[in-house]
């Protein structure tokens, strides 16, 4: 039985070999980017049995994504190939260490054509936790339907649902996003909102109100990500701040996915929510030490060493 | 008054920094690719007053294309920016020096949204030769309409129409392409088919029959491109083979566009068709000496030096 | 009618691909460098009709400069090619983020041979503002004469003269420079000194005395550049400090030229001196956000967005 | 049940970024090299269920090898990590397109410490074909013992044994190698010698005698590799030449491993020996089209397309 | 007569072309690394007559080391070539600007086979100062014997012995290292311990006690390196702190060797210990300004300029 | 006593990182180029005691040249540094594997200011062979005088004079060159003309007449280089053709210098002229196997191995 399953678009990511406006950049280097596969990779590195699926084009970029994710030890046996569409790609642009600009070539991509008929229901059922990001339902109507179909299967089979809202206003408007994401939230057991996302979805701007609201909506565990400060975890029974690790940040992209993976790893090991939060903070912090979306996620030994060296809130 | 005007999609072209399947290629270098701008650039290098227009996205890749074409001395004052679409891009893949594979990301590109309302009629009128490629009508319905609108303006204003069929079966089927391209051919004064194109459009497989047929259809000058062998030029009055230049080929992409530009340069200088053909052969040959689509097109002095060093059919 | 005209040497600039003493640097990347073309490029990006001329060698480096400046939309129709001299080049060396060392290969360069007979008087007359840098008269005797000839034409034709002293002690001694630069200053309508330049030229070390002195000498507008702090603008009528924008600086080369361009753009739009100063500060600040001499100059929309996001002295 | 199992050292391979003596080469690019993993990868690309194991150091190079082989779809679940030794590496040096020189750093490597106690006997039993290369027994005494233990398990369990002698005189002398390799040959069902290897092992210099001798020794199928010419296949029942494919060779390294994989793929599909040989020739030829050891191995569809386009001996 | 002689292993050092875990690094650049050759190079740059010897493999990496050290003006006439072993190499890994990880491939290297019979006794005798690092005796038994043989020759011939403990716990345990290093210390005239080394060797954790102890053991000058703070120098007669130079550090590797070289340069010029210490501080600081182990060591003029610009303790 | 002494300009050479017109080349890599230092380096690699001197600027490029030549084992103790001039540089441009174009930045370079007062007469006297190239007298009046002063010293001291005409029409006209080079020829013991040089200097176009003429002028040994064909050697006593080695040429630059070095190495070992010629042919051929001016010159062992593998005229 898989411990975790994720699904959704992973793209080939072209990183500029120099900073500055892209028209002045001569060369680009290839890697992969995708929140869903990030979470699966981070969990596989920590020793968990993780699966990820999506749809890629019948092209070199699709094969590259497949091999890269598989190379990390994630099960990709349900990845589909779509002969009628290309694999999505994106370009980053970096100016002066600010957040990178992103140029997408993903409209009509193979992944955006993921549909209910692509699902292997038995495979999905055989899972402890299904982690959903708010990116997948934004890709297309069929992707949205697919997400809800997976949620339905999960619900029917008592699978834990984990949800990271990941609001991407480049893909849909807030008006479109809000009802969909709230509906997913209602079905989730664990939710990982940020403050800004709480504001967009609920109109609430602090961790306490945000978590209260999500608990009311039926979530069992609400983990409000507070960036460098750490996180605030709330269940019916417990509510507490868990202080983050202080590190010299190199690149924050992928830190949120790492956080979720660190937390879920704790859940899979039946750690306390507090310990889950510390672990989430640690993986998130380690992700920022290294350039790249997923390169910085630690192996289990590395995570333990880091948590021994650095102090969380009360260790 | 402009001497030549071209229009149609120019894309940012990503060249692999190593040969082999793209999934194993780490880096890519940026340049531009587009048959229409190639012809304009080649003519500008030869000292002609050339204009090119298209539509690009409001993004760095669009600005890069604009600046590159403008940098070559082509008038880009009518290039449009489309805030609702991206600039098209493509990737090349080279295996063992065979013709490169191409991966397009151009569906729905800004250029494919070029439409009649984007035309500056007065600007178009003020031109001696309008050169059309068969790529533009393949991009979209609105592009097709735009091509015919331009042809109409040209016809009404006595502008010479030059046409290179450039059949791209990745963009449309032969069934879709044939009637459109034949209709353009009928309106053209000068046409630059290859043998293979003659076969696809007319079902004829040799230069003599192909040129005869196009002359019948109303073309005044038919220039059948014969690759390394040179070309066969036919008008009502004259018909002759013009032998090509023997060179050590490095990269043939862009050679056909260079050929057309070399020929049209001769037309603009009122050279004999024979001299036009020799000049076309020379620019085409020089284009193959250098890696890249348009990097090898010569300046006028370089062309003269090359034609002095190498012998055409009877010099 | 051109809005702005600049002239003077632009060189090919070789940037080390690694920091440290150049003898340990394996690779170098090519770009262009020149204060005069910088100002023209920055103004063209902001939407102005700008021209620049100089003299380059009949070589690939000269063609590269021509195409790059032309690609930015600057009119280069009066750029001369000198068959008897090479295009000047320079190498930068970076050690530990300090100001780069510079190694010039420009002695006897084509640009240093610019002379009065290279001038197209009618072209010069057809200009609103002529911007002069103190680099051009330092290059050679003939360059010096050319500068004064242009000043004479400007004076006779009521063209506004803008002047940035740009004292380069690698090119001439202060003893040589001072009388020449002061003579140019006397003829200028707008002058852009820094504090250090004021000290070298006038022996005065604060913005108030410096601007007073230049006003006395006949300048109508004195803009003392104060680096990150902004600028001090003085006319007969008004005198005020205009606070700079706080940004995370990446590379300060080219900031002064951007400042002048931003200010002159305001002049061309009849903005108040205060608004001109804010705009100069903004372009100067944006230039420092990006590595490279001219890569960071903004398009007009980008400038407006930046000025909206960041606060100038009283906005 | 796995279809094929291979085991033996895979190293990180550093390719020079330029040709010439290594002391003048500034940069090196990383990939992997290993005959055993090559065969497993080539078979996995063709759609077979392949496993490979070895021992790597507890270091980044070991993790890189694991992820790369796993990324290709090969089962690496039995790969061991040795905390007391490093992962072996090698450097290539290319001068003028001749065969590259190789510099090894593999003495005492983790893989050379592979020993009988590292074997998972149940895992080994669950295999149709075990492919052995003559490199593994050359690495160390414990590797030699491991090879014979695996052979013993295979024999006891009716697993087909495939053997490629791969004589490496940089690792042992011919005197050391000959008795060991002949002993393995005697236990093998399928053997893939080259002419030169036949000469070294048997003192015979033509394919007919070589195959006769190996058949006498008990091999059921002898496949003598003849390079570009193809191969000669001999069983008790059949003997025939199978002509190779003519291609423009880019890099021959890895072609022999590809040949073996192509042949074994046919065996797994119960193709005739003739068809197996054609398939071996095809994969070997395709491997040479691409720079790199294993980058050129085809996917099944690509193999079929290639065999359709190119003609083997009688197609 | 040589002024200084050093000996010991120098390796080819492969620097990652990107930061992050090495499995994600595509390219590596070659340079050299070795504490003993660093000291010799730094002294040669300062104008001294320095020699260095070691043993390298009969391979390109050995030739590269020889040419690089010789290129710096160090006498390498006694460098031996060992046909039976490889030149040692190492890889660096950089994560987030922390101290780099190091992966060695040096076990059994040519240098580790340096032995007493490789010594040219007359050459050694003809030296003013012999500088020993604690790395050489850690490499092998024969290296350890070689060190003591050299010490014996030095003692017999009145050559000044300089010693930098350089404890490398990757090469031997502290238990192995301590008695050896203390024995060398007892024979040394000048010793350069750090605080941490004092603690490991003597169990003392402050510069005063450490230097007192070494003076007792017979050292004439003890120079305790205090990193950015400078150093503490103690002789029988004088004891004082010498403040370091404040610089923006880029890379600290090689700074300690530079310090020793700067100090010894002063000794060779008969400067006071105070002046020697200032000079050591300066060379050490300059080394940190530049990426790379030895690239930052100054020429004499550069050192003088630096010491003029920056202030030492009382200048 | 030095075996060979050369002197003359060595420049930093910037190689384009891609082929094609330089305006399209993004990056350049640094190496050194100079016929005189090439000969010295080639001889040093073969084990001879060689010296080279020149003048470089007080800059990083000068230091780079010094260290590179010294690194090859050539004595550079008489290399002068000129604080008033820059080190010369050049750029290569490669189009389609033809001979590269060259762009010089050497006018007024430090080396061109080499003058009689830079000579160390005692150092020059202490030499067996002085090798002169026809490049040095082309650089400047003072260089010309220096060459003749050295010739005078050589003559007075019975030093063998070797001369390679190396006519460079980019540096002087044939009219200027001819009398100077003939005057040097008259003073030379060994001369290495090519056929084309014979034609330019003597108006003779075959090896027999050319050598006859030089023998008449007083040369003792005339070695006419015949490229791939080998050479023709003539003395009063012997005259013969010596066939060249057939190799796959990669880059011919530097082959002539290697030829001269190979021949002179034979002279220094008192080989027969025939053996000298074979050795010259071999070093010249090996130089062409490797990209770069001097990278391909062999070590003595490599030369012997090559001459054993390949056959010269009668071996």
Description:
The structure is a homohexamer of 315-residue chains. The first copy, chain A, has 315 residues and is an alpha/beta fold. Chain A has a single domain, classed as Ribokinase (UDP-N-acetylmuramoyl-L-alanine:D-glutamate ligase, 3-Layer(aba) Sandwich). Helices cover 38% and strands 22% of the residues of chain A. The first copy, chain A, has 11 helices and 14 strands. Chain A has helices spanning 35-45, 60-71, 121-125, 136-139, 141-156, 174-187, 195-202, 207-217, 255-268, 273-287, 300-309; strands at 2-7, 11-16, 27-33, 50-53, 55-57, 80-82, 89-93, 101-105, 127-133, 160-164, 190-191, 221-225, 230-235, 239-243. In chain A, the strands form 3 sheets. An 8-stranded mixed beta sheet of chain A has the order 4-1-9-10-11-12-13-14, sandwiched between helices. In chain A, strands 3-2-7-8 form a 4-stranded mixed beta sheet. In chain A, strand 10 (160-164), helix 6 (174-187) and strand 11 form a beta-alpha-beta unit. In chain A, helix 1 (35-45) crosses helix 9 (255-268) and helix 9 (255-268) packs antiparallel against helix 10 (273-287). The longest helix of chain A is centred in the middle third of the chain and has 16 residues, at 141-156. Chain A is globular, with a radius of gyration of 18 Å. Residues 311-315 of chain A have low confidence and may be disordered. Chain A binds chain B through residues 14, 17, 21-23, 25-30, 59-61, 63-64, 67, 86, 89, 93, 103-105, 107-108, and chain B through 14, 17, 21-23, 25-30, 59-61, 63-64, 67, 86, 89, 93, 103-105, 107-108. Strand 3 (27-33) of chain C pairs antiparallel with strand 3 of chain F, so a sheet runs across the interface. Chains A, B, C, D, E, F: Keywords: ATP-binding, Kinase, Nucleotide-binding, Transferase. Chains A, B, C, D, E, F: Belongs to the carbohydrate kinase PfkB family. Chains A, B, C, D, E, F: GO terms for molecular function: ATP binding; fructokinase activity. Chains A, B, C, D, E, F: InterPro entries: Carboh/pur_kinase_PfkB_CS (IPR002173), PfkB_Carbo_kinase (IPR050306), PfkB_dom (IPR011611), Ribo/fructo_kinase (IPR002139), Ribokinase-like (IPR029056). Chains A, B, C, D, E, F: It comes from Clostridium intestinale URNW.
